[in-house]
C-alpha cells in the first residue's frame, strides 16, 4: 500500500524511503533486470548524501553508500554492465564509474571545462552515455573505457539555444529550449535522432506555464539478444533483495540481511 504525506513517501507500514523532515530525495534510477530502485538522498542540515537500493517487488531496502563525500548530482544505472554512473557537485563535468555497490572503478573527464551537465542518460542499445551541457548534446561510448587511458566525448548535436527538459528514449532525445520571450510565449518541444545527427524537429507547441518536465513510464529497453539476462534471485527461496555483482553474478539477500 502506498500512502503520501507532505513529508514522506512510504511503501508499507514498516519501510520508508527516508526518515525525518531534513532528508530529501534528489535522484532516482531503476534497474529493470533486478527490479531495484536506486535512491539518492540528501540531508539538508548535514549536506551528507547516501545511496540506497530498494527492490520494488519485495519493498526491501538497503543502504549502499553512507556519508557520501562525492556528492553525486546525477545518478544512472547501467543494467547491462552492472555499473553506476554519476556526476558530482564538486566536479560537474567528471563522470564517476562504479559498481552497483557504489565503489568507484574509474573517473572520466567528460568536458574540457567544468561546465554543468544538466541531463545524462544511458543507452542500452549503443552502450553510449548521452548527456547535455548548455546547448550541446554529447555522447560517450562506454565500451571503450577499459581499453583507453583518455576518452573524449563527441558532439552529437548543437542547438541554437539552451536545451531544457531533456528526455532520451533511443534513438531520440526530446527537449525544450530556453524561452527568451515573455511569459505568454509558447514552449516548443523538439526531437533529435542521435543516430542521424541531422537537425532537431519541432514536434509540438505548448502554452507556457511555470515548468514543463518530460517523463516516461515504460518497460526497460534491452538490446536484441539480451533475453537470456534474467535475475536468478526471482526463483531463489531467499530473494527479498537482489544486488548485482561483477561478471553476471547476483547476491540474494534474506529478510534479516536486508534490514
Mean pLDDT: 72
Q: Helix and strand string, N-terminal first?
A: EEEEEEEEEEEEEEEEEEEEE
The fraction of residues in strands falls at: over 45%
What summary fits the major beta sheet? 4 strands, antiparallel
Please give the domain count.
Answer: 2
Which secondary-structure class do the elements indicate? mainly beta
- Please report the number of helical segments: 0
What's the N-to-C terminus distance?
A: 19 Å
Count of β-strands: 21
Q: What is the C-alpha radius of gyration, as a whole number of Å?
A: 19 Å
Helix content: under 10%
Strand numbers in spatial order across the main sheet: 4-5-6-7
Query: Outline, from the CA principal axes?
Result: globular
Q: Which regions contain 5 or more consecutive residues with pLDDT less than 50?
A: 1-14, 216-229, 255-259
The oligomeric state of the chains shown is: single chain
What does this structure look like?
The structure is a single chain. This protein starts with a strand and ends in a 6-residue tail after the last strand. Strands 4-5-6-7 form a 4-stranded antiparallel β-sheet, with no helix packed on it. Strands 8-9-10-11 form a 4-stranded antiparallel β-sheet, with no helix packed on it. A 4-stranded antiparallel β-sheet has the order 12-13-14-15, with no helix packed on it. The protein is mostly beta strands. A hairpin with a 2-residue loop joins strand 2 (9-12) and strand 3 (15-16). It has strands spanning 3-4, 9-12, 15-16, 23-31, 36-43, 49-55, 61-68, 72-78, 83-88, 94-99, 104-109, 119-123, 128-133, 136-141, 154-158, 163-169, 172-177, 187-193, 201-206, 241-244, 250-253. The protein folds into 2 domains: 18-109, Thrombin, subunit H (Beta Barrel); 113-216.
Amino acid at each position: 500500500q502506498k500512502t503520501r504525506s507532505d513529508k514522506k513517501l512510504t511503501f508499507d507500514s514498516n519501510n520508508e524511503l527516508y526518515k525525518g523532515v531534513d532528508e530529501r530525495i534528489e535522484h532516482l534510477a531503476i534497474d529493470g533486470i533486478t527490479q531495484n530502485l536506486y535512491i539518492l538522498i540528501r540531508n539538508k542540515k548535514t549536506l551528507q548524501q547516501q545511496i540506497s537500493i530498494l527492490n520494488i517487488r519485495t519493498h526491501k531496502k538497503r543502504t549502499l553508500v553512507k556519508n557520501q563525500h562525492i556528492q553525486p548530482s546525477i545518478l544512472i544505472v547501467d543494467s547491462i554492465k552492472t555499473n553506476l554512473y554519476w556526476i558530482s557537485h564538486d566536479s560537474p563535468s567528471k563522470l564517476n564509474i562504479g559498481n552497483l555497490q557504489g565503489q568507484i572503478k574509474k573517473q572520466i573527464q567528460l568536458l574540457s571545462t567544468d561546465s554543468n551537465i544538466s541531463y545524462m542518460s544511458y543507452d542500452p542499445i549503443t552502450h553510449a552515455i548521452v548527456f547535455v551541457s548548455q546547448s550541446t548534446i554529447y555522447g560517450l561510448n562506454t565500451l571503450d573505457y577499459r581499453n583507453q587511458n583518455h576518452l573524449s566525448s563527441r558532439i552529437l548535436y548543437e542547438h541554437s539555444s539552451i536545451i531544457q527538459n531533456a528526455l532520451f528514449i533511443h534513438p531520440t532525445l526530446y527537449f525544450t529550449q530556453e524561452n527568451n520571450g515573455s511569459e505568454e510565449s509558447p514552449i516548443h518541444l523538439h526531437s533529435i535522432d542521435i543516430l542521424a545527427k541531422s537537425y532537431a524537429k519541432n514536434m509540438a507547441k505548448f502554452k507556457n506555464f511555470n515548468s514543463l518536465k518530460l517523463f516516461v513510464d515504460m518497460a526497460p529497453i534491452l538490446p536484441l539478444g539480451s533475453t537470456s539476462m534474467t535475475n536468478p534471485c526471482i526463483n531463489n527461496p531467499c530473494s527479498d533483495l537482489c544486488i548485482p555483482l561483477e561478471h553476471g553474478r547476483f547476491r540474494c539477500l534474506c529478510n534479516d540481511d536486508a534490514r
